[in-house]
Amino acid sequence: MKKTRLWLLAGLICTVAGSAWADGLESLEAFVKTVKSGRAEFTQTVTAPPREGQPGRAKTSTGTFEFHRPGKFKFDYRKPFAQSIVADGKTLWLYDADLNQVTQRTQAQALGSTPAALIASAADLRALQADFALEAAPERDGLQWVKATPKNKDGQLQSVMVGFQGDALAALEILDSFGQRSVLKFSKVEVNPALPASTFEFKAPAGADVLKQ
């Protein structure tokens, strides 16, 4: 379950006035064009689908997120478990500290229709539209929203809602094909910080098992 949650680390519908529908897409376009790097803290809540009449269980984790467009990003989970997801532009690395295990995948094969592609990988809106159907959604919780639906129906991702406060990324709401919902809320967001190249370098810890997929 941990690994499934990580991979899902790396979008809804009602009628509103036309001006509101434009806001989310405009924010996404401005974000992709102008925000080339970023740093933030995040809180992620994953809720499993309800079973046998019982409500779905929710699990919360926290950590930090950094990215440099196109194609480099890093999620560091700190609580309750130490885990990392690092994309260096060629390879996607997943590290589970409890298991001392690293999973290595080719980045191009792993990222196409994922939330990470929406916020860190694409160079422009046209690149996103190659993998996602994008549509603006109603304003909610003081944020402008875009729904992104993968064009590839064979993946694990059903949809992603991307929330912006102005042009700043504020939230992701991810629904997978199993009905699991993951909500990430970003805080202390820094726009276009100078991030050293070493931020996105990954070296397997001594003694770790490395699995290539």
Automatic annotation (TrEMBL):
GO terms for cellular component: periplasmic space. Its main location: periplasm. Pfam families: LolA. Keywords: Chaperone, Lipoprotein, Periplasm, Protein transport, Signal, Transport. GO terms for biological process: lipoprotein localization to outer membrane; lipoprotein transport. Transmembrane segments: none annotated. InterPro entries: LolA/LolB/LppX (IPR029046), OM_lipoprot_carrier_LolA-like (IPR004564), OM_lipoprot_carrier_LolA_Pbac (IPR018323). Residues 1-22 form the signal peptide. Participates in the translocation of lipoproteins from the inner membrane to the outer membrane. Only forms a complex with a lipoprotein if the residue after the N-terminal Cys is not an aspartate (The Asp acts as a targeting signal to indicate that the lipoprotein should stay in the inner membrane). Belongs to the LolA family. Monomer. PANTHER family: OUTER-MEMBRANE LIPOPROTEIN CARRIER PROTEIN. This is Outer-membrane lipoprotein carrier protein.
